[in-house]
């Protein structure tokens, strides 16, 4: 029991150290620092919001907040997956030099992005609370959304990072997939506009319910139904288990493949 406790503490210390290193490296020599977490989504929101409002006859209430919360969420997921997928290959010299849990490499990227996301959401909470759109009743939904988002991102990132060591095409496939996935997720539009015969595509997209939860909290949009949440949540859990299993299995051969 003592050995397991020490091993867990070592893993957490290493994860925290690499996460801190990732954060410092990202904003080193920058003037605005963490403000860039908000600046990029704001610019995206203004451009996308303006263009889509030209074509949407009846825009959603609080559309810019709806869009902004979705973009913050998507940017976290997309950036985490994009950087985590090639992370094991990129750190080949570190892997060959020392023995340590390889999972801390992609996990440190995800958690550094999570720090950025939480800072951005904190600012958004202040704004929406001032406008009386955010209330204490939304906190359970917010926590559930964060848990689902992080667990799915961890599972998918571990899965893609492990496979990319053996098959380098995975990195290019993920980048192409994310471009299509963005438009297959209700970020710039409401899920209510999706034709019924295509709704199954959104039901198997774990990001659907996650987006709806955040948009409910920050823009008073309709929350996901119980059925949608159950299906998305099940697929989310499947990817988490699969990602951990595949990464653990493949990590034994990382030294040979990198």
Describe this protein with a few key phrases.
258 residues, 12 helices
Short description:
With 258 residues, the chain is mostly helical.
Instruction: Tell me the series of helices and strands, N- to C-terminal.
Output: HHHHHHHHHHHH
Total strands: the figure is 0
Radius of gyration: 19 Å
Helix share of residues?
over 70%
Percentage beta strand: under 5%
Rough outline: globular
Give start-end ranges of low-pLDDT stretches. none
Biggest beta-sheet profile: none
Q: Whole-Å distance between the termini?
A: 34 Å
Tally of helical segments: 12
Quote the average pLDDT. 86
Textual characterization of the structure:
The protein has 258 residues and is an all-alpha fold. It is 75% helix and 0% strand. The protein contains 12 helices and no strands. It is globular, with a radius of gyration of 19 Å. The model has no long low-confidence stretch (mean pLDDT 86).
Give a topology summary.
Blueprint: H1 2-26, H2 36-55, H3 63-84, H4 87-90, H5 92-97, H6 104-130, H7 139-166, H8 169-183, H9 199-203, H10 207-219, H11 226-250, H12 254-257
Helix pairs in contact: 1-6, 2-3, 3-6, 3-7, 3-8, 3-10, 6-7, 7-8, 7-10, 7-11, 10-11
């Amino acid at each position: 029991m003592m050995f397991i406790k020490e091993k867990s503490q070592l893993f957490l210390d290493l994860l925290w150290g690499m996460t801190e290193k990732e954060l410092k490296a990202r904003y080193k020599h920058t003037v605005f620092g963490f403000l860039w977490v908000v600046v990029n989504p704001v610019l995206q929101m203004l451009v996308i919001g303006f263009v889509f409002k030209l074509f949407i006859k009846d825009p959603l209430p609080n559309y810019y907040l709806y869009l902004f919360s979705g973009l913050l969420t998507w940017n976290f997921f997309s950036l985490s997956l994009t950087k985590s997928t090639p992370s094991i290959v990129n750190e080949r010299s570190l892997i060959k030099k020392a023995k340590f849990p390889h999972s801390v490499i992609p996990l440190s990227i995800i958690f550094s992005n999570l720090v950025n996301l939480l800072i951005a959401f904190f600012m958004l909470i202040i704004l929406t609370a001032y406008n009386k759109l955010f209330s204490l009743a939304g906190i359970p939904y917010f926590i559930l959304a964060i848990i689902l988002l992080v667990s799915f991102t961890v599972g998918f990132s571990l899965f893609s990072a492990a496979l990319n060591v053996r098959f380098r095409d995975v990195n290019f496939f993920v980048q192409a997939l994310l471009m299509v996935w963005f438009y297959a997720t209700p970020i710039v539009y409401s899920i209510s506009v999706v034709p019924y015969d295509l709704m199954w595509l959104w039901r198997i997209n774990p990001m659907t319910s996650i987006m709806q939860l955040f948009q409910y909290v920050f823009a008073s949009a309709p929350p996901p139904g119980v059925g949608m949440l159950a299906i998305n949540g099940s697929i989310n859990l499947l990817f988490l288990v699969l990602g951990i299993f595949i990464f653990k299995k493949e990590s034994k051969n990382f030294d040979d493949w990198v």
